[in-house]
Design brief:
This protein has five helices and no strands. It is an all-alpha fold.
């Protein structure tokens, strides 16, 4: 094993003078943003599932007509098909509002904190955890991937 793979990449090394508390705080901020990323994914699932259900209503309306239940077909079409999921909004509007009001500001704040407090070095908390937990000299515990020229 060469020295290259046994030392963390400089972008994952703590800048001089950065305190343990700051590294921990940035790690907590990053973890919170990652959780928000997951929540956002669930919001997109909600959006797509609700949209898919609404499109399936077209089939339900058609089948109700074919089965001789035009009053029920009309009831489904007029009361549920295309209905707002909350007052005035379809799911795409909820996603847009979430992105504009919460997700993007959170993402920008986290990026700014990392840039201003840690010289833009991301995942320092995790990088230091990796260093503490890996077995030096073990080929499956290298600090980073091999260089392209190796």
């Amino acid at each position: 094993m060469n020295d290259h793979t046994d030392r963390p990449d400089p972008c994952h090394r703590r800048p001089d003078g950065l305190s343990d508390k700051t590294v921990e705080a940035l790690g907590a901020l990053s973890k919170a943003l990652e959780t928000t990323e997951r929540a956002r994914g669930h919001l997109y699932s909600f959006h797509q599932l609700t949209g898919g259900a609404d499109l399936e209503l077209d089939r339900a309306v058609r089948l109700l007509h074919e089965a001789g239940h035009p009053e029920w077909a009309e009831k489904v079409r007029s009361e549920i098909l295309g209905r707002n999921v909350i007052p005035g909004r379809w799911t795409f509007q909820i996603v847009e509002a979430y992105n504009d009001t919460y997700y993007r500001p959170f993402q920008e704040l986290e990026r700014s904190a990392v840039r201003d407090l840690a010289e833009g070095r991301d995942h320092l908390y995790e990088a230091e955890m990796k260093e503490a937990r890996r077995t030096r000299g073990h080929p499956a515990h290298t600090a980073r991937p091999p260089a392209d020229d190796e």
